[in-house]
Design brief:
heterodimer; A: alpha+beta; OB fold (Dihydrolipoamide Acetyltransferase, E2P); Chloramphenicol Acetyltransferase; 3 domains; six-stranded mixed β-sheet; 9 helices; elongated; B: alpha/beta; Rossmann fold; 28 helices; about 35% helix
């Protein structure tokens, strides 16, 4: 019966050996004890003797092969015997290859942010905190005495401080000092920019006015205005140009309107808006919405008008204002202003999206110059000031006082360049100075 | 186990008996009258002078110790003074024939030997050589001191030099022979062939054998004498030295000029007491110490008892024994009978012996008796001898006055230079070779079978696709060690390596496979299984100027060479005042699978001892680089290896382990994996388990761990660890050493001290349990594993979400275990 020859195992840790030499050929007759083959491990070389008499029927490896230990490498038997059953895994010798562990790591290493839990400081002043956490706490003004630690045995460790910092508002350096001194916790945003906590936010009592004040919650509209105005300044690049327009023609027209019995009460404001509409028709770039990576140009002028009400500032819109005569415009203004004051205005008309341009007139109040805030996404707003006499060259070396109306154009430099804005503003002045209408 | 030697069962099983040669006892019986023809008058009177010189020197020390003055000069010497009053003839007789190239090693009681050998060298050296030596020694410091007001010839100046240098050393003066760092028990002076005297009983018994090995391997002239006491014949290391020195292979396997016995004489200064224990009749059983030779080799070590009370008997014995050594018939054992009147030390009241006994020996005093003989033989008259005595007293007064003068002979100024001793702990030199001459090798390196085999290996463990090559194809850690070592063997002719199974077997873990083919026996050989002698001889070999790699196989066997590793190897560079270098790289291997006495990581033990460098590489790249550094240096290195990873491939150095030479400086830890949330600092093979822990921390807990491999622990640079800690705030330290008192604890303490403010939790140590190492199948309960590391992090550093612990790292458990001492 055929006998199989295996690769011997030389030691517990040896997994495979390098086969170095056959001393016998297939078909050779072999005597027990004759040296049959040689092999080596990484530690030593070995020779192996035949354990049986017989004929070398077949071999399954050759010089240089790496053979796993205990694998069949040859068969000794009598001629004619089959060797197929002994072939290791087909006749191909698979080198023993170790699979390297897949190095796919779910790198969600963002450390889990601990929940911030605040407690009363221990009565005896004992606080368990790591030196590192304490250093950061002192540096950033964190009231660590009040924190519940997530470390071993409730020790406050760095991650507790980091979690606190991630949720707590920013604190000014002065406020930090006050917090350190007084051991305060800051949980509410302060009055500084973006909610930064200022030192005065921390004081329970203001040395100037003490308790002499009243805190009222904001009405909704106030909140909306605040939000819109703040957003406007944050999200656009606003600047304002100021220019004066000769107001003589306008004042003359006003005088005529007043003088004519039964004529509609066309105000200076109506006239300015009428002039603005004309100018906008010539400068479509100003009659637009800036949308970040695109601009929406309007075919019609939808004019917004800032209205001061008891409830706060409202900006109703006059749709298709360029279709209106000055009388129509005047009438519509009066209507929307009235419904604003009464609170019956259609909310659709108050949306800043609804207007393509806005006029804010503070001339009635004697304001000589101001910087109105754009109603985004509109690209500009015109501020109208009071009329003041201004020294003007009347020609022929003669100077005289001429009434001028101040115009303040705030525009979004993202959408308009200064040259265009200036020409547009100038155009408004020209329209005002050369105003024509019939009534 | 050389194949050339056949152990024939029919031969070794034959009946028979052992016959011992006779061991002569006190056979010398000549008078001075008879010896006058052989020795000149000046030689015979010189012997008298040298004995008297020793007697006065030690009488002076005794008087200072007992009375606080000598000849009216007051001085307090608080240090030791182990005197040999009575033994002078033995020392002078021993030194008489020895030349400058002959080295003596001694004991704690060796003032006499220093002076005797020093005088012998002075007599034999030419004036030119003497002056040259004195001018160069410590830049002529001692010479300048003793030249002042000197009248007389150069030899008398050299005698001043000898006496002053020895005395200043005993008084711990910076102007002493060893800058005052050796002192009474360790003073020595190599330019006169006086090698370290040793305060550990029997300490020279194996070290001196290493010096003889150095002489043989490097074909240097001269012999070596190990002066050891009769009581030291009970010490294991002395027996190990005897076994090493008498190995058959010197005669039977070493070839050519290297064939033959070691040139060494074990010279037992037999004063018949070991402290108060009487060696004959009480503490030993050899009766006559020379008997020991009969048990050591076929030649009974040519052993002989000599009457050491008669200097000429000793001189005669040395003449005959040195002739035997010339014929390469060593080793030799001499039992030189003598007696000390002085106690073991000044505090010894001699309660163990009678007054009558001491008086009986004093009645036969070696100097008085020899003086009488000289007069009787007409060599000298009494007046001449008296003049010698009074001249020596003057010399003592002169030397003492100088040596106690704080201006002339200051002590080391540790106020002004606080790091003077620190700077001497290591020599930190860098030398390709310790001597410039061709190397003895059997073939060019590129023809070496192992070198050829390694050339076919993959020097980085992974292919371009990141798939690992099979183990056997990978360039392994042991290949890295081999490359560094074989490279040095082809550079440094003095380099030798030995230990258990170093030759044909290739070392128990196959690091040396291939070296046998490359090297002749005298550069690579198997030693007895005798760790004290393996390390002790390496120390002696290095002291003389050679480089050596002793290997003791398992780390656990360090205890077997405890004195050598703890007391000898680390001390001699500084104790010599940096006269001696110690390029010894001890290879030790940390085991596993083999239970309690074969699995211990003792790096902490050696790290505790000042004066040793300690490294423990865990990758092929680090192993080769650190071994290169160890072998390039001049300091003793304990080089740790781990049996877990001899076959590990290079997983970190992506360019593969360089084929060319490179060094990795000691002390620089290496970041094996970067991370930001926690630092894991590991020593040795544990780094692979630390990396497993790091992977699991990342995958299961989203925590990114930085893994730092210490690589070496003495010296160690903490800066990279602190830098890592600044980032992470947390650190876990781990190694396979038992946790209590491990070096990790030292590191943890230092880290706490250096970076307290950075810490988000205390540094946590995960070591092995304070148990015996159990069987392989139970090792998971003993050695650190990734689960333990993660449990410890969870319990002590930062609680991990949803982590379930499997081991107990609570404070209560720490206290419980400490209370029980486990």
């Amino acid at each position: 019966m055929a006998t199989v020859v295996i690769m011997p195992r030389q030691g517990q840790s040896v997994e495979s050996c390098i086969f170095t030499e056959w001393f016998k050929q297939v078909g050779d007759e072999i005597k027990k004890g004759e040296t049959l083959f040689a092999y080596e491990t990484d530690k030593a070389s070995f020779e192996e003797e035949a354990a049986e008499d017989g004929i070398l029927l077949g071999v399954f490896c050759e010089e240089g092969d790496e053979v796993p230990v205990l694998q069949n490498i040859a068969v000794i038997g009598q001629s004619g015997e089959s060797i197929d059953e002994f072939k290791p895994g087909g006749s191909v010798i698979e080198p023993a290859v170790e699979e390297k562990e897949e190095e796919v790591k779910s790198l969600e290493t963002a450390e889990v942010v601990e929940q911030v839990v605040v407690k009363e400081p221990a009565a005896n002043g004992d606080v368990k905190i790591s030196p590192r956490a304490k250093n950061i706490a002192l540096d950033k003004g964190v009231p660590y005495e009040l924190l519940v630690g997530s470390g071993p045995e409730g020790r406050i460790i760095e991650r507790d401080i980091q979690a606190y910092l991630a949720t707590a508002p920013k604190v000014t350096p002065l406020a930090k000092e006050v917090i350190k001194e007084e051991g305060l916790a800051v949980a509410e945003p302060g009055t500084g920019l973006a909610g930064t906590v200022k030192a005065k936010d921390l004081s329970a009592s203001n040395p100037v006015y003490a308790e002499d004040y009243e805190i009222k919650n904001l009405p909704n509209i106030r909140k909306l205005i605040a939000k819109a105005m703040h957003a406007s300044l944050q999200n656009s690049a606003q600047l304002t140009h100021h220019l004066g327009a000769d107001a003589r023609r306008m004042m003359e027209l006003r005088k005529q309107v007043k003088a004519k019995e039964g004529a509609p009460n066309i105000t200076i404001n109506d006239m300015v808006c009428f002039a603005v509409i004309k100018a906008l028709k010539k400068f479509p770039d100003a009659n637009a919405h800036f949308l970040g990576d695109s601009v929406k140009y309007f075919n019609k002028v939808h004019l917004g008008l800032a209205v001061d009400t008891d409830r706060g500032l409202m900006v109703p819109v006059i749709k298709n204002a360029d279709d209106l005569s000055i009388a129509g415009l005047s009438r519509q203004f009066k209507e929307v202003a009235e419904s604003c004051r009464q609170g019956s205005i259609d909310p659709e008309l108050l949306s800043s999206d609804a207007a393509s341009f806005t006029v804010s007139n503070l001339g009635n109040y004697g304001v000589e110059m101001f910087t109105p805030v754009i109603n985004l996404p509109q690209v500009a707003i015109l501020g109208v000031n009071t009329i003041v006499p201004r020294p003007t060259d009347l020609g022929g070396g003669v100077y005289g006082f001429v009434p001028h109306m101040g115009l303040s154009l705030t525009y979004d430099h993202q959408a308009l360049d200064g040259g265009l804005a200036t020409r547009f503003l100038k155009q408004i002045a020209i329209e005002i100075e050369n105003l024509e209408f019939s009534f | 186990m050389p194949k050339s030697q056949f152990i024939d069962p029919t031969q070794v099983r034959k009946s028979g008996k052992i016959e011992f040669k006779d061991i002569p006892v006190n056979q010398y019986d000549k008078t001075i009258e008879e010896e006058k023809v052989k020795y000149s008058k000046s030689q015979l009177i010189g012997i008298y002078h040298d004995m008297a010189l020793i007697r006065h020197f030690e009488t002076m020390l005794n008087t200072i110790k007992v009375r606080g003055e000598y000849e009216g000069i007051a001085y307090n010497h608080p240090g030791p003074a182990h005197l040999s009053i009575g033994q002078e003839s033995a020392a002078v007789g021993m030194a008489f024939h020895l030349g400058v190239d002959d080295f003596i090693f001694g004991s704690h009681r060796s003032h006499g030997e220093i002076l005797a050998k020093g005088m012998s060298a002075i007599n034999k050296m030419s004036d030119e050589d003497l002056l040259d030596m004195m001018k160069n020694f410590f830049d002529g410091t001692i010479l300048n001191i003793v030249s002042n007001n000197h009248q007389g010839d150069l030899k008398s100046l050299a005698r001043r030099f000898l006496v002053y240098g020895t005395l200043a050393e005993i008084f711990a003066r910076e102007t002493g022979f060893n800058k005052g760092l050796g002192g009474s028990m360790h003073a020595f002076f190599t330019p006169f062939g006086v090698y370290p005297n040793n305060a550990i009983v029997g300490g020279s018994g194996d070290i001196a054998v290493g010096a003889a090995l150095y002489k043989k391997v490097n074909q240097k002239d001269g012999i070596v004498v190990a002066n050891i006491g009769d009581a030291s014949m009970a010490c294991g290391p002395v027996w190990e030295g005897l076994a090493f020195a008498s190995m058959d292979q010197f005669e039977q396997l070493w070839e050519g000029a290297h064939k033959g016995g070691l040139p060494i004489i074990f010279n037992i200064m037999n004063n018949q007491y070991g402290m108060g224990g009487q060696t004959c009749g009480e503490t030993m059983g050899y009766d006559i110490a020379a008997r020991i030779g009969a048990g050591v080799n076929r030649d009974s070590m040519h052993a002989e008892r000599v009457d050491g009370y008669n200097p000429l008997a000793v001189v005669d014995a040395y003449e005959r024994k040195m002739e035997l050594l010339k014929q390469k018939k060593g080793p030799i054992l001499l039992d030189v009978l003598t007696y000390r009147y002085s106690g073991h030390s000044p505090s010894d009241a001699s309660s163990y012996r009678t007054k009558e006994e001491v008086e009986a020996w004093e009645a036969q005093d070696c100097i008085v008796a020899y003086g009488k003989e000289l007069v009787k033989a007409g060599v000298a008259d009494q007046a001449e001898l008296d003049a010698i005595q009074s001249d020596i007293v003057e010399l003592m007064k002169y030397s003492m006055t100088l040596a106690i003068d704080d201006e002339i002979s200051p002590r080391m100024d540790l106020v002004k230079h606080p790091e003077l001793i620190g700077d001497m702990m290591f020599s930190n030199e860098s030398h390709d070779k310790m001597e410039d001459r061709p190397v003895d090798v059997n073939h060019p390196m590129e023809e070496n079978p192992r070198v050829k085999q390694i050339a076919k290996k993959e020097r980085f463990a992974f292919d371009v696709n990141g798939k690992a090559y099979s183990k056997i194809k990978q360039y392994q850690l042991k290949d890295g060690l081999f490359e560094a070592i074989v490279d040095r063997f082809y550079k440094d002719p003095t380099l030798v390596a030995y230990g258990e199974e170093n030759r044909d077997w290739g070392g128990a873990f196959a690091v040396y496979r291939g070296l046998t083919e490359a090297l002749p026996y005298h550069r690579l050989f198997n030693s007895p299984i005798s760790e004290a002698s393996i390390i002790g001889t390496a120390i002696g070999y290095a002291m003389c100027g050679g480089r050596v790699i002793p290997e003791i196989m398992y780390c656990d066997f360090l205890g077997r060479c405890g004195d050598e590793v703890f007391n000898q190897l680390p001390k001699w560079q500084a104790m010599s005042g940096n006269v001696i270098k110690m390029p010894v790289v001890i290879r030790v291997s940390v085991g596993s699978k083999y239970g309690a006495q074969h699995s211990q990581d003792w790096s902490s033990l050696v790290a505790h001892i000042p004066g040793l460098k300690v490294c423990f590489p865990a990758t092929p790249y680090d192993a080769k680089g650190l071994m290169n550094t160890a072998l390039q240096g001049t300091d003793p290195v304990i080089f740790f290896e781990s049996q877990r990873i001899y076959d590990i491939g290079e997983q970190f150095h992506e360019d593969g382990v360089p084929e060319e030479y490179y060094e990795i400086p000691f002390g620089e830890p290496d970041v094996k994996k970067e991370g930001k949330d926690i630092t894991i600092l590991s020593i040795g093979a544990t780094v692979y388990r630390a990396l497993e822990a790091a992977n699991e921390l990342e995958e299961k807990y989203g925590m990114s761990a930085e893994v730092i491999d210490a690589r070496s622990i003495v010296p160690f640079n903490y800066e990279p660890v602190i830098a890592s800690l600044k980032k992470t705030g947390r650190i876990l330290l781990t190694s396979d050493a038992s946790e209590r008192g491990s070096f990790l604890k030292d590191m943890a303490q230092r880290i706490t001290e250096l970076a307290f403010d950075e810490l988000d939790a205390p540094p946590v140590v995960v070591g092995s349990r304070n148990w015996i190492t159990p069987a392989y199948e139970l090792e998971e309960f003993f050695f650190p594993c990734k689960e333990w590391m993660i449990d410890a992090i969870h319990e002590k550093i930062v609680p991990l979400k949803n982590h379930k612990v499997t081991s107990n790292y609570t404070k209560a458990e720490v206290i419980r275990r400490s209370k029980l001492g486990i």
